[in-house]
Amino acid sequence: MAGLEVLYTCVAGSISCPHDAVVCFVHWEMIKNGYRCIGSGDDPRSSDKKSELLPADWNSNKELYSLRYKDNSTDTQMLLKAITVDSALIFNLMNLNTQQVSDLTVNISDHVNADQLHTFDSVFKDMEGLSQMVTAQLLPPQKKETEQKTERKSRRDEEDEAQRRREEGSSPLRMPGGHPHQGTQPHWPNPLDPPFAVGGADLDPFGTRGGGGMIVDPLRSGYPRSGFDPSSGIPDILPPGAVPPGARFDPFGPIGRHRPGPDPDHMPPPGYDDMFM
Question: What's the CATH code, domain 4-145?
């Protein structure tokens, strides 16, 4: 286990019995799960400070080990006690904030080689088994529950991400939402609808899209027309064929009538018969 060998080597000189080895192991499990040791004994001291190491007097009492811990991210404080009962150690862990208690009994001979106390590779018989016992029975339930929830959430997020990638063609560069041809096309307003209709007559001068244009064409005005066809000519005004079929034609003068002659009531101008005028 990463870090345990370094810790054990640091305190190997003070380990004198198998119980010390087990307490050192449990201490490392506390460190690994986010706690830091702040001292020994039941009462706080002015010299208390967070540390991954064991305090100098951690095993001064072989009958009763007492260590205090603090959560590395909160103000939660824990009190760990280990009582020696024949060939076993009874651990008791109390949350000083909530008074919640958990306990664990370790049979020393099942987990420690008493004749290998100063050889880290051989001192523990089953580190994995001991670690599972400490995690399942001694560590605070809230701590374990939080870690389990975090692990489940992480696993669920990974599964959801994998499912999404499978649905999108397993392309890490594809934008969410599927293929480009799928989905709803954006709705663009008609540029000739209000309030964008300003200047619409310039875009559609003949009014072919509805509404008025800016050019008045009698032949394309949309209103009912007579059967007048300028290409057939206008008597006394235009000969037949002067206007090509279908060409635009703006009529001038009265259509379908002869040009009026002089009215009998018209008076000649003054001096009409004066040759010098």
Answer: 3.40.1000.30
